[in-house]
Design a protein that fits this description.
Organism: Paracoccus denitrificans (strain Pd 1222)
Largest sheet: 9 strands, mixed
Pfam family, one: Amidohydro_1
CATH class of the largest domain: Alpha Beta
Number of strands: 17
CATH architecture of the largest domain: Alpha-Beta Barrel
Strand content: 15-25%
Protein name: Amidohydrolase
Family: Belongs to the metallo-dependent hydrolases superfamily. ATZ/TRZ family.
GO molecular function, one term: metal ion binding
CATH superfamily of the largest domain: Metal-dependent hydrolases
Shape: globular
CATH topology of the largest domain: TIM Barrel
Low-confidence stretches: none
Mean pLDDT: 94
Length: 465
């Protein structure tokens, strides 16, 4: 294989000529891309592009697919230290595990957790992640630092709860002041994009829900919240407000094109119409539905109605290929089998939902999500010389069903090589992991976590005692 570090080390103009290039109209042969100043400067037929730019260096990658990086529309970078603690747990694990854990982390542990999560994202082909906001006590700067050092493009939310659900719950004036400062802090940043969030509608007053959503709209950023994920939350909202959570957001004026709803698994036909009519976007999190949810979002129906959505992990596992596979599989099991829909959107839909559609849902359609002239050069080089992709008859669908993160040879953000075969090129991931192994157990032990189930390891040991 070409020495990727040497090939992509320089910062001058570079023409990348892959075996296949994934564009909006599918995988194309004999095409090339000119990289300049971290962007896709020009795309064209390989020989013609080479003739127009004879001074540019040429990177021949005949056995590779060059494709947009995946975009995770919903994750939690500061939860990576406790990933498997939620296995087998009943709904609303945030109350018993995530809020206590995140709230107990000091600055350094927030940094370590975030960098570990960023490492996992990049290894899985995610060049962009949308973080729903840390519940730690004012350590968002460490989250940003970790993501920036790893080279992950990040949409990072400032949580604006005024009724609980975070380590700190300041007064209204302080919340609005922090939100304004957060929006100002990352204007023009090449990798970090600001967002505002309220964890779930019931931890904010109606006025705060409306004001934060409108502040996000005015700033041109996303407003994030978790909605209609668990049955118990839907029922609490009905008792408290006489409306389901999504209906309540519409009632207070918090829906709109700026709003990114995580989950929306428990949605009625009228709520789907609310999403469509307001232009609200949804993070479809299929693995989260399998592991810890009450239902599966009706993504195919959302597509048919024109509702904007992208794929998200919800911090489950960071593998973009397996996420696409789960997205198709859950639609097939949840809806397709009963209706005789054998394609469930086809491979092209889920590939699009993990890239272009995810960028739109995340508010980044003008930045990333496609290999298109002028956009940031966030892309993957995927090894096509694999048994799973041989012979190839339908590469788009094969990527969804056969792709895996070990097929990713290189990951780039802003035209800069970040990873080669799963490991960073400019920082020591193994040293990070060694430090986390040393510090994670005491941090977990100090957090007031409440688990319902014992670990599988402890059950096995008990049964064989």
């Amino acid at each position: 294989m070409t020495d990727l570090r040497r090939t992509f080390a320089a910062t001058d103009d570079l023409i990348v000529a892959p075996g296949r290039l994934l564009l909006g109209h599918g995988p194309q042969s004999d095409m090339a891309v000119l990289l300049r100043d971290g962007r896709f400067a020009e795309i064209g037929e390989r020989a013609a592009l080479r003739a127009r730019h004879p001074a540019a260096r040429l990177a021949e990658m005949p056995g590779h697919l060059m494709m947009p990086g995946f975009i995770d529309t919903h994750t939690h970078l500061t939860q990576s230290l406790g990933k498997s603690l939620v296995f087998g747990e009943p709904s609303e694990i945030f109350r018993r595990i995530w809020v206590p854990l995140e709230g107990s982390l000091d600055e350094h542990m927030v940094y370590l957790s975030s960098k570990l999560a960023a490492l996992e994202c990049l290894r899985g082909g995610f060049t962009t992640a949308v973080d729903a906001g840390t519940r730690s006590a004012g350590h968002i700067g460490k989250l940003v630092q970790a993501s920036r050092e790893a080279g992950l493009r990040l949409v990072v939310a400032q949580i604006c709860n005024d009724l609980g659900g975070a380590a700190q719950v300041p007064g209204r004036a302080e919340i609005l002041c922090r939100a304004e400062a957060h929006l100002a802090a990352y204007q023009g940043d090449p990798l970090i994009h600001a967002s505002l969030a309220i964890s779930i509608p019931e931890v904010a007053s109606d006025a705060m829900l409306r004001d934060i959503s409108q502040m996000a709209a005015g700033a041109g950023v996303t407003f994030q919240t978790h909605v209609n994920e668990h049955l118990v939350a839907v029922e609490r909202s009905l008792v408290a407000n006489g409306r389901r959570p999504l209906e309540h957001l519409a009632h207070v004026g918090a829906l709109g094109p700026q709003t990114l709803i995580a989950h929306s698994t428990l949605v009625t036909p009228s709520e789907l119409n609310l999403l469509r009519d307001t232009g609200t976007a949804v993070a479809y999190n299929p693995v989260a539905s399998v592991w810890k949810g009450n239902a599966v979002a009706p993504a195919l129906q959302m597509q048919a109605l024109g509702i904007r959505f992208g794929l998200g992990t919800d911090g489950t596992r960071a593998d973009g290929f397996r996420l696409m596979d789960a997205a198709e599989t859950m639609q097939r099991v949840g809806y397709g089998l009963a209706s005789g829909d054998s394609s469930c959107g086809g491979g092209w839909l889920w590939l699009d939902a993990a890239t272009r559609m995810a960028a739109d849902a995340s508010g980044l359609s003008a930045v990333t999500g496609r290999i298109a002239e002028g956009l940031a050069a966030d892309f993957l080089l995927v090894d096509l010389d694999r048994p799973e992709l041989t012979p190839s008859h339908d590469l788009s669908w094969e990527l969804v069903r056969y792709g895996n993160r070990d097929q990713i040879d290189a990951v780039f953000t802003n035209g800069r090589l970040r990873m080669v075969q799963g490991w960073p090129v400019d920082w020591d991931a193994r040293a990070l992991m060694a430090e986390i192994r040393e510090l994670a157990a005491p941090a977990i032990a100090a957090a007031p976590i409440q688990r319902i189930h014992p670990t599988a390891d402890s059950l096995i040991a008990t049964r064989h005692a």
